[in-house]
């Protein structure tokens, strides 16, 4: 049985069916911490896990509502601590700090995307701050064709892994003189080594055969050169696993993705490139509403849609596709070793889409978010 604890800020804007190989139900995520590090274990009271939920801005409340409804119907032993944080609030927002403390306690969270202002007067991204403060350094987005959804290209099955805590997202910017801004890109050997090892461990655990290193070392010879060399050095440690390793310049990668994405299996890259590549991947398979994802570190795990779209333009219209959020929650259940519940929900989502019982507007249907969610519940 599922129950929720809400912490909101006022005035702020049948027989279990096992799906065919699906990224959310079958993917095994490496745990970066050593087995003896007990702090990685999620918080559990009795038979229930406690998970931090941050719905986020835009369509976040609708998507989180779908997860809660499905979990309740499936009798998932999870209790949510919900924090209605908004990126539209100030940088010193107390509720945001409370949500971080909740994550520190519970070790596991699920979230939508928090809005980040683009004005120079706006604060730093809450999304980036959360990943950096809790050192959730590995971002994983899973891009795979969904049966029943028309897409531009077929046989797409890509795991996109990006380093989450440095690169252009380091937040080190300043105006040296009026009209001249310097923005620093940080690449370190230590952080590149651990994201490379995460990528190869992921490949091994999921029987993937190839890892592609994405870079721009032909121009950024020091920064991306260090990233490329370090990934190649780490690859040598995994040579006995017979995983094919290659590298590709990021602009060529964009072209190859939209022309022959079947050549990619696991991709590993710095932060900004991963942001762009995951969005290209979404376009390949039918949109951002279909890609699940997560952020993993030594102690904490946060599950969220892989494309991180706020979608303020369709907020409160009951039209958002909850698939990515539901499949991200399935990945979370796998992380909690609740495989039976993960199987039921994953199978129900894929059956709903493939059978045509319910499809939201973005994947060629007319169903509302609520109708899609109800159809998933009926398929459990």
* Percent of sequence in beta strands: 15-25%
Which runs of at least 5 residues are low in confidence (pLDDT < 50)?
A: 8-22
* Structural class category: alpha/beta
Can you name the CATH architecture of the largest domain? 3-Layer(aba) Sandwich
How many domains would you count in the coordinates? 2
Rg, rounded, reads 20 Å
The mean pLDDT is 88
CATH class category name of the largest domain: Alpha Beta
Instruction: Return the CATH topology of the largest domain.
Output: Isopropylmalate Dehydrogenase
In CATH, the homologous superfamily of the largest domain goes by the name Isopropylmalate Dehydrogenase
Got a strand count? 14
How many strands, what sense, and barrel or not for the largest sheet?
Answer: 12 strands, mixed
Span between termini: 15 Å
User: Can you count the helices?
Assistant: 11
Q: Can you tell me the overall shape?
A: globular
Give the helix level as a range of percent: 25-40%
* Assembly category: single chain
Order of helices and strands: EHEEHEHEHEEEEHEHEHEHEEHHH
Which tags fit this structure?
two-stranded antiparallel ribbon, twelve-stranded mixed beta sheet, 2 domains, 380 residues, 19% strand, globular, alpha/beta, IsoPropMal-DH-like_dom, 36% helix, Isopropylmalate Dehydrogenase
What does this structure look like?
By secondary structure, the protein is an alpha/beta fold. The protein folds into 2 domains: 41-117 and 125-142 and 291-379, Isopropylmalate Dehydrogenase (3-Layer(aba) Sandwich), CATH 3.40.718; 152-285, Isopropylmalate Dehydrogenase (3-Layer(aba) Sandwich), CATH 3.40.718.10. Helices cover 36% and strands 19% of the residues. The chain contains 11 helices and 14 strands. Strands 1, 2, 3, 4, 5, 6, 7, 10, 11, 12, 13 and 14 form a 12-stranded mixed sheet that branches. A two-stranded antiparallel ribbon has the order 8-9. Strand 13 and strand 14 form a beta hairpin. Helix 2 packs parallel to helix 11 (369-379), helix 5 (189-205) packs across helix 6 and helix 7 packs parallel to helix 8 (271-285). The longest helix has 17 residues, at 189-205. It is globular, with a radius of gyration of 20 Å.
């Amino acid at each position: 049985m599922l129950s929720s604890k809400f912490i909101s800020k006022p005035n702020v804007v049948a027989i279990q069916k096992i799906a065919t190989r699906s990224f959310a139900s079958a993917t095994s995520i490496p745990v970066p911490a050593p087995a003896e590090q007990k702090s990685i274990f999620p918080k559990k009271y009795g038979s229930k896990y406690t998970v931090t939920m941050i719905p986020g801005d835009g369509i976040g409340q609708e998507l989180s509502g779908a997860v809660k409804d499905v979990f309740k119907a499936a009798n998932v032993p999870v209790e949510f601590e919900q924090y209605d944080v908004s990126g539209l609030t100030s940088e010193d927002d107390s509720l945001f700090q409370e949500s971080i403390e909740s994550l520190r306690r519970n070790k596991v969270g699920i979230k939508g995307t928090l809005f980040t202002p683009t004005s120079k007067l706006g604060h730093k991204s809450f999304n980036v701050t959360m990943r950096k403060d809790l050192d959730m350094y590995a971002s994983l987005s899973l891009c795979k064709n969904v049966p029943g959804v028309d897409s531009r290209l077929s046989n797409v099955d890509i795991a996109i892994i990006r380093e989450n805590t440095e690169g252009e997202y380091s937040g080190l910017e300043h105006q040296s003189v009026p009209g001249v801004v310097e923005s620093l890109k940080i690449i370190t050997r230590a952080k590149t080594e651990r994201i490379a090892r995460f990528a190869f461990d992921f490949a091994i655990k999921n029987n993937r055969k190839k890892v592609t290193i994405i870079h721009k070392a032909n121009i950024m010879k020091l920064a991306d050169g260090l990233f490329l060399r370090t990934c190649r050095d780490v690859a040598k440690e995994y040579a006995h696993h017979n995983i094919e390793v290659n590298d590709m310049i990021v602009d060529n990668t964009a072209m190859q993705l939209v022309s022959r994405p079947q050549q990619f299996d696991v991709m590993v890259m710095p932060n900004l490139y991963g942001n762009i590549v995951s969005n290209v991947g979404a376009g390949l398979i039918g949109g951002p509403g279909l890609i699940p994802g997560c952020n993993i570190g030594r102690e904490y795990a946060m599950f969220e849609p892989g494309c991180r779209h706020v979608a303020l333009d369709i907020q409160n219209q009951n039209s958002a596709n909850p698939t990515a959020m539901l499949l991200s929650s399935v990945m979370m259940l796998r992380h909690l070793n609740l495989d039976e519940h993960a199987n039921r929900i994953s199978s129900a989502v894929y059956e709903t889409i493939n059978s045509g019982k319910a499809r939201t507007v973005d994947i060629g249907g007319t169903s509302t978010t609520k109708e899609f969610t109800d159809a998933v519940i009926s398929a459990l």
